[in-house]
Specification:
This is YD repeat-containing protein. InterPro entries: YD (IPR006530). It comes from Tersicoccus phoenicis. There is one protein chain. With about 90 residues, the chain is an all-beta fold. The protein has one domain. Helices cover about 0% and strands about 40% of the residues. It has no helices and 9 strands. The protein has strands at about 10-15, 20-25, 30-35, 40-45, 50-55, 65, 70, 75-80, 85-90. The two termini are about 25 Å apart.
């Protein structure tokens, strides 16, 4: 995980209809938030290695997905449906 030059990352985009989405990034250049023209916001957090730790979809502020990985990060672990147990994927 290294520092990125975030000044070159797009902080917003506008579609042909004039709808603007905004983005925020951490110092490593990982996207933290995406907010659409209706103010719906997706949020990502990262572990110290820069790998996604949690993801929250727009409208699900209290219902986030938590990701886990084995110690060498070669195989992601993801929660099974309804978050009942961890399941290996990939």
């Amino acid at each position: 995980n290294t520092a990125a030059n975030t000044k070159y990352l797009a902080t917003s985009s506008t579609d042909d209809a004039g709808n603007t989405s905004a983005y925020t990034f951490n110092g490593a250049g990982n996207r933290l938030t995406s907010t659409d023209a209706l103010a719906a916001q997706a949020v990502l957090t990262y572990n110290p290695d820069g790998i996604v730790a949690t993801a929250t979809a727009p409208g699900n502020g209290s219902n986030r997905t938590v990701y886990g990985y084995n110690t060498d990060h070669s195989s992601p672990l993801s929660p099974r449906w309804r978050g009942r147990a961890w399941a290996r994927s990939g």
